[in-house]
Structure formats: structure tokens, C-alpha cells
From TrEMBL:
<feature type="transmembrane region" description="Helical">
    <location>
        <begin position="157"/>
        <end position="181"/>
    </location>
</feature>
<feature type="transmembrane region" description="Helical">
    <location>
        <begin position="89"/>
        <end position="107"/>
    </location>
</feature>
<dbReference type="GO" id="GO:0005886">
    <property type="term" value="C:plasma membrane"/>
</dbReference>
<keyword id="KW-0472">Membrane</keyword>
<keyword id="KW-0050">Antiport</keyword>
<dbReference type="Pfam" id="PF01554">
    <property type="entry name" value="MatE"/>
</dbReference>
<feature type="transmembrane region" description="Helical">
    <location>
        <begin position="354"/>
        <end position="381"/>
    </location>
</feature>
<keyword id="KW-0813">Transport</keyword>
<keyword id="KW-0406">Ion transport</keyword>
<dbReference type="InterPro" id="IPR002528">
    <property type="entry name" value="MATE_fam"/>
</dbReference>
<dbReference type="InterPro" id="IPR048279">
    <property type="entry name" value="MdtK-like"/>
</dbReference>
<dbReference type="GO" id="GO:0042910">
    <property type="term" value="F:xenobiotic transmembrane transporter activity"/>
</dbReference>
<keyword id="KW-1133">Transmembrane helix</keyword>
<feature type="transmembrane region" description="Helical">
    <location>
        <begin position="235"/>
        <end position="257"/>
    </location>
</feature>
<feature type="transmembrane region" description="Helical">
    <location>
        <begin position="393"/>
        <end position="413"/>
    </location>
</feature>
<feature type="transmembrane region" description="Helical">
    <location>
        <begin position="269"/>
        <end position="291"/>
    </location>
</feature>
<keyword id="KW-0812">Transmembrane</keyword>
Length: 459
């Protein structure tokens, strides 16, 4: 099979997944834009709180991402029971994660203050996080259903549910933040309540699709969901926890950068948050292609198709690298136009924040390609159910290269906020090189592994 069909198949599967990730990110962008027009201190608090929330979500999302490859592989092998067991226990582990991290969200204010944040910013951040504690279960369970539906070849349903949530979230934010139509003016808390409502509505829609979708009825996903399956539980935990820790290593680097940026003041943190969110929006494209790579590599891995696995991986790399050129160009040529959308022009602090955010966008443009490659490499390796070694490579890259380099450049070397972003570039570059090397060194051994799989199949 030539590479062109793999490019087409990855694109057709990846586009709805990209749309889903972009849609979710746009929900966050809507929150940030509206809060940015409500107040600068509130914007700084939301930047800090969403980063805090995101790192806890990423720690729990490894189980959903891990079973995506398992579901694709089990479906390729015709193992309906394995597919059902893995998905159910991913839901179990995700809910357990919500219970474990609840204290960290409820008493987040003292933690933020201990990290050097201003008391007013920390208090508002805790207010938002306490509301969003009750959004964590639908967020993580929804990710499991996303993986299930995508691996069954129906990512379009996930995209539709996400897109429908966009205007609902925007309307609720507008009403609850500013107090329109006779509702109370709740500011940051109102933004959290809007997100909470939308996430529960989306979970209900995803669960309904998983239950009634013709392709999924044979798997009887909800039958005896309450019964534990401890072997499958342990397997999902062993596969997903390294993925979650890998994501925490990356998001933790950015969250650590948020904390360090907060030392420069609320204006610098607001500028950092704006630039980071714009860069994160384009990253959703690479994340969607990475998810498509996980499914297609997982299918080839389950079927013992070594050549197909390599071509599926190469197709994802080409597509992601090609897209990276577009945002790179925009970030380097029109940064002020992009960052200026987030603030009220009448705010006297707006010009200073926009100028700083625009200077940071230059570094965001420079790390587009390496950020894409590390995301694709992780997706490919997850499809091969290779998660432990990539975890250690990621921890090394982000925490021993990226964050220390950012601190050294920003403070001892006196580069300020741009130095912090240059450190992020160093960490992402190290991850891209190490993870891609991990895959391509394993590629020559795939033919032998595929032969063993075929030899084990009944004739």
C-alpha cells in the first residue's frame, strides 16, 4: 500500500478529531476573552486557575488516551470482550482520579499563594477551581467516550457535540460573568458555572451516542457497568498512568512557566496567558492528528501489519509538519493583531500587555514544528502501547531541560519573560528529538513482531 492512501485515511479520521480539540479549546478561548474584558486581575486568575485545572485533567486523561489504541487494536482482532473491558475500566479509573484530586482543587488557594502568586489572584483562582471540581467527572468520562467513539470510526459525532456546546458556553459565560438578563454578576465564578453546565450536557450526549450507536451495540458497553473487573482495571491503570504522567510533565512545564511568569506581576501573567492560549489553539490540530495516529497505528499493531504501521506513522508526521507552517507564519507576521483580540482597548494597561504578548508570540512561532513532532511521536508510541519509556523521556525533556532553561534565561541571565519562552522551546525540541528517535529505532524490529502476531493467530 502506498503512502497516499495513508495520508487520506489519517486526514479523514484526524479532521473531526482536530475539530473536536479546537472546539474544546475555543470554549476556553471564549472564557478567557470574556474574562479579559471583565478585568485584568480576573484574567490573570483565570490563566492561573485553568493551568492548574488542566494539569490535573491531563494526569487523569492518560486512561482515555491509553484505551484509544487498545480499542483500535482489539477491534482489529475481533476481541469484543477486551474492547468492552478496557473501556469500562477506563471509566472507573477516571472517576477514581476525580476523587483523589478533589482536595487539591478545593484548597487550591493556599497552594497558589505558596507558589508565589498574589493573594487576590490566588483567591479568585480558588473560587473558579472549586466550581470546576464538579466538572472534572464529565470532562474525564467524556474523554473516554471520545476515545471509544473515535476508535469505532465515528469521531464526527464527537465533533458535532463539541460544536453545539460552543454557542451554549458563550451565551452562559456572557450571562453569568456580566450579569445580563437579570442574572447576578458572578465574574470568575460565573465562567466556571458556564463550563460546568456545558460539560455535563456534553457527557450526556456522548454517553447516549455510545449506548445507541449501531456500531457499538454489539459491545454492550453499559451492561453491568457497576461490576469491577480488576485485571482490566490494573491493565488500564498500568497503561494510562505513564501517559498521564507524560502529559503532566509537558503541561507541568507550562504551568511552571505560569508560576514563574506570575513573579513578574499580573500584567506579565495576563500577556503570557494570551500568547499561550493562541499557541495552544494551533496545538489542538497536532493533537487531533496525534489521536488519529494512535488509532491507525493501534489498528496496524493489532493486525500485525508492520509496513502499514510505519506508513501510518509517516503520514501523521507529514500532515502535522505541513500544518505547522501556517501558524508559524501568522505568529511571526501579525502577533499584535492576534493578541489584541483578548483585551478591552479602553483599559489603560492593554497596550503594554498586548506588546508583551506579541513579543512572546515570536517564540510560539519558533516552537510550532518541534511541538508538533513531539505530539505526533507520543501518539504513534501510544498506538504501539509503548508508554513507560516515553514518559521518562518527556520528564527529562520538560523538567530537566525546558523549565530549568527557562528559569535561568529569565532570571539569572536577565532576559525576562522572553527568556522563559526560549526555555520552553529548548524543552520541546529535546522531547521531539528523543521521542522520534525512540520510534524510528523501534521500526526495524516491527517486522519480526508482526510475524509473531500472525503466527499466533488461529488458522
Amino acid at each position: 500500500m502506498s503512502l497516499r492512501p495513508h495520508l487520506t485515511a489519517t486526514l479523514l479520521l484526524g479532521l473531526p478529531l482536530v475539530g473536536t480539540h479546537v472546539g474544546r479549546m475555543l470554549i476556553g478561548v471564549t472564557d478567557t476573552v470574556l474574562i479579559g474584558r471583565y478585568g485584568v486581575v480576573e484574567l490573570a486568575a483565570l490563566v492561573l486557575a485553568t493551568s492548574y485545572f488542566f494539569i490535573l485533567v491531563m494526569l487523569g486523561s492518560g486512561y482515555a488516551l491509553g484505551v484509544m489504541g487498545v480499542i483500535a487494536s482489539a477491534r482489529a482482532q475481533g476481541e469484543a470482550a477486551e474492547l468492552r473491558r478496557a473501556t469500562r475500566m477506563a471509566l472507573w479509573v477516571s472517576v477514581l482520579h476525580c476523587v483523589v484530586i478533589a482536595p487539591l482543587m478545593w484548597w487550591s488557594g493556599p497552594i497558589l499563594i505558596a507558589l508565589g502568586q498574589e493573594p487576590q489572584v490566588a483567591a479568585l483562582g480558588q473560587l473558579w477551581l472549586r466550581v470546576m471540581l464538579f466538572a472534572m467527572p464529565p470532562v474525564l468520562a467524556g474523554m473516554v467516550f471520545n476515545s471509544y467513539l473515535a476508535a469505532l470510526g465515528r469521531p464526527n459525532l464527537v465533533l458535532a457535540i463539541t460544536v453545539i456546546g460552543l454557542p451554549v458556553n458563550a451565551l452562559l459565560n456572557w450571562l453569568l460573568i456580566f450579569g445580563h438578563w437579570g442574572l447576578p454578576e458572578l465574574g470568575v465564578r460565573g465562567s466556571g458555572l458556564a463550563s460546568l453546565t456545558v460539560n455535563w450536557l456534553q457527557l450526556a450526549a456522548l454517553a447516549g451516542c455510545a449506548a445507541w450507536l449501531p456500531e457499538g451495540r454489539e459491545y454492550r458497553l453499559f451492561q453491568r457497568l457497576w461490576r469491577p473487573d480488576w485485571p482490566a482495571f490494573r491493565a488500564v491503570l498500568a497503561l494510562g498512568l505513564p501517559i498521564g504522567l507524560t502529559l503532566v510533565a509537558e503541561t507541568g512545564m507550562f504551568t511552571g512557566a505560569n508560576v514563574l511568569m506570575g513573579w513578574f506581576g499580573a500584567e506579565a501573567l495576563a500577556a503570557h496567558g494570551i500568547a499561550l492560549q493562541i499557541a495552544g489553539l494551533t496545538f489542538m490540530v497536532h493533537l487531533g492528528i496525534s489521536n488519529a495516529a494512535t488509532i491507525r497505528v493501534g489498528t496496524a499493531h493489532g493486525g500485525g501489519d508492520a509496513a502499514g504501521l510505519r506508513q501510518a506513522a509517516l503520514a501523521a508526521i507529514i500532515l502535522s509538519a505541513g500544518f505547522a507552517v501556517l501558524p508559524m507564519t501568522a505568529f511571526l507576521t501579525i502577533p499584535e493583531l492576534l493578541t489584541g483580540l483578548y483585551l478591552n482597548p479602553a483599559d489603560p494597561r492593554a497596550p503594554q500587555i498586548v506588546a508583551l504578548a506579541a513579543s512572546l508570540m515570536v517564540y510560539a512561532g519558533l516552537f510550532q514544528l518541534v511541538d508538533a513532532m513531539q505530539a505526533i511521536a507520543l501518539g504513534i508510541l501510544r498506538g504501539m502501547q509503548d508508554t513507560r519509556v516515553p514518559m521518562w523521556l518527556a520528564i527529562f525533556s520538560y523538567w530537566l531541560v525546558g523549565l530549568p532553561a527557562g528559569w535561568a534565561l529569565a532570571f539569572p541571565l536577565g532576559m525576562g519573560p522572553p527568556g522563559l519562552w526560549l526555555g520552553l522551546l529548548c524543552g520541546l525540541s529535546a522531547a521531539a528529538v528523543l521521542l522520534m528517535t525512540r520510534f524510528w529505532r523501534a521500526a526495524p524490529r516491527l517486522d519480526g513482531a508482526a510475524a509473531l502476531v500472525r503466527g499466533a493467530q488461529p488458522r
